[in-house]
Amino acid sequence: MQVLIIGGGIGGLTLALSLHAARIPCRVFEAAPEIKPLGVGINLLPHAMRELRELGLEERLAAVAVETKELRFHNRFGQLIFAEPRGRFAGYDWPQLSIHRADFHAVLLAAARERIGRDAVVPNMKFSSFEEKKESIAAKFQNGETLEGGCLVGCDGFHSQVRKILFPHEGPPAYQGINMWRGTTRMAPFLDGATMATTGWLECGKLVIYPIRKDLDAGGRQLINWVAEIQSPRNIMPDWSLGGRLEDFYPTFAGWRFDWLDCTALLRNAEQVLEYPMADRDPLPYWTRGRATLLGDAAHPMYPRGSNGAGQAILDARTLAGCLMRNPDPANALQDYEAKRLKAANEVVLRNRSEPPDAILREVWKRSGDKPFARIEDVISREELVAISESYKRVAGFERDSLARRAPLA
């Protein structure tokens, strides 16, 4: 039984590596003619790093990432609202890594080619449709090729063709009036050089800032990833490679100079700016039909407000590999996978809409009237701040004690 993996992104490659470790044949089919660096920074939280360690990738990833020590929330005046340690600094057995998406993908791709073979990932294979048969499933590609396998997994991202086949009348993505500009800037480390800072709020402008590469030169500069988010009527098509313009968002942040970071210089000196809407899709009632299923963004695209998009795809991949390893019938294995992951992933999608970790910023913005405070305790208690953070960890699957006790996925 060969598993046909449609899409060679983070979810598809993690699935391929997990299947290979379970001695299940697989092949990855990527639509792009060649695999190029894509995107900017992402975070790998402890629940993802647990799985990546089990795949033997932690050391490779740590070598090209920044281990996050602390997460901090500030208002738009730069005042500290809440800080908490992260990863191993919070007592987890696994780190939290901030990494360029291209570096993460390169590690996965290199490992897949080393372990499975140079032809493990086949480029220029744009998927068009599938046909289910009694004992197999056939994937059809736009170049005329048809390939058969035991099951087919759509790991083809936000604009998934596999999802369109399963749900042909779904409609456009859900846009809630928030636009994002993402970029990277080479600069000296801010704070301790290992902090993720989230500042402001959507109505007044919000910035997420963290380092993703270290020691770029003799001066110790880092590559700093940033995301600028504002309320906006712009509803562009989601595209990870769409270029953005500084003038479309910079005026919102023009006065943001703090004693711990000059945000204006950070934005002005960007070497890359990309534009992307904050969009997701409504949770699906099912992912699986017969021998075909969905994984990652193809199954549950979510707002990037909890550092969980990549992590949830990794959990999908590891869970699916475990189900296929334990169940000789692919169709039954896919149903088992869906039963284990659909509700959990859909809950993260909905939580990212309503009460993500940055709800801390929303509460302070509302209660303070968007004004500086003398004491944060006069605005919101630390107990309430901790409760918001811990509640999200439980929903997303990385509450420390529960994660330590959880049985292996694959």
Describe this protein's structure.
- There is one protein chain.
- The protein has 410 residues and is α/β, with parallel strands linked by helices.
- The protein has a domain of 217 residues: FAD/NAD(P)-binding domain, CATH 3.50.50.
- The chain has 11 helices and 18 strands.
- The strands form 4 sheets. The chain has a 7-stranded mixed sheet. A 5-stranded parallel sheet has the order 8-2-1-12-18.
- Helix 1 packs parallel to helix 4 and helix 1 packs parallel to helix 7.
- It is globular, with a radius of gyration of 21 Å.
CATH architecture of the domain at 3-67 and 94-172 and 282-354: 3-Layer(bba) Sandwich
CATH class (first level) name of the domain at 3-67 and 94-172 and 282-354 = Alpha Beta
Major β-sheet strand ordering: 6-5-14-15-16-13-17
Order of helices and strands: EHEEHHEEEEHEEEEEHEEEEHEEHHHHH
Q: What is the CATH H-level superfamily of the domain at 3-67 and 94-172 and 282-354?
A: FAD/NAD(P)-binding domain
The structure class reads alpha/beta
- Radius of gyration from the CA trace? 21 Å
Uncertain segments of ≥5 residues (pLDDT<50)? none
Q: Helicity, in percent?
A: 25-40%
| Mean residue pLDDT | 96
CATH topology heading of the domain at 3-67 and 94-172 and 282-354: FAD/NAD(P)-binding domain
Query: What is the 3D form?
Result: globular
Proportion of residues in extended strands: 15-25%
Count of helical regions = 11
Number of strands: 18
Report on the biggest sheet: 7 strands, mixed
CA(first)-CA(last) distance: 18 Å
